[in-house]
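Task: sequence design from structure.
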């Protein structure tokens, strides 16, 4: 169902991310909003926000506020990552740079598998967590959250998605995220759940 938000108050929604994979995923999830959804990178001189917060919420808020004030547009920022129970919640906010500041997805996955070497299946529980911050220019952030429970597989499987998707196995589906078609992942993922809550917040704000 199309969500009618295209009023004078909200015609454009900016995604505060430089990650092209997140842009593609979030645009698909927000496709039923009657607004133009654009990445922040379409704005010349957009600042690169350092993600130095200790929580997903802190990082999402920092990005959303900075980009909303820079662009003068409503902005949604996502900070998300993988939490592995055996590693006491790591990599968490350091998911994208788990193996180093410039680490590739393959390097991060290799480090995770190394740390879980010989750890049995029943102790490989993990979850993806997403926190979205929604900000209007000059406003305070509102938050929407989502999570997806699963396990870390013993080896990479699948070729879709990005990040830790080849290792994140969802028992209810019987696949890793990387083995799922994008539309299948977008029905159950942490980011999909957070975005559904974000839509409810946007609708409520405009009703007010």
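Answer:
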């Amino acid at each position: 169902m199309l969500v009618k938000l295209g009023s004078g108050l909200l015609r454009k929604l900016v995604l505060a991310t430089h990650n092209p994979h997140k842009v593609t995923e979030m645009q698909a999830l927000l496709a039923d909003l009657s607004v133009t959804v654009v990445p922040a990178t379409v704005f010349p001189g957009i600042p690169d926000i350092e993600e130095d917060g200790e929580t997903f919420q802190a990082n999402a808020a920092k990005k959303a506020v900075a980009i909303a004030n820079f662009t003068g547009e409503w902005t949604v920022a996502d900070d998300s990552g993988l939490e592995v129970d055996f590693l006491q919640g790591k990599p968490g906010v350091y998911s994208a740079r788990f193996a180093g500041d410039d680490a590739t997805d393959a390097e991060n996955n290799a480090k995770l598998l190394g740390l879980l070497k010989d750890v049995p299946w029943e102790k490989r529980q993990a979850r993806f967590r997403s926190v979205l911050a929604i900000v209007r220019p000059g406003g305070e952030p509102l938050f929407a959250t989502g999570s997806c429970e699963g396990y870390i597989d013993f080896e990479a499987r699948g070729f879709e998605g990005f990040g830790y998707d080849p290792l994140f196995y969802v028992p209810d589906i019987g696949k890793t995220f990387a083995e799922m078609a994008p539309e299948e992942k977008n029905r159950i993922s942490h980011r999909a759940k957070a975005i559904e809550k974000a839509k409810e917040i946007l609708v409520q704000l405009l009703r007010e």
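The two ends are 21 Å apart (CA to CA).
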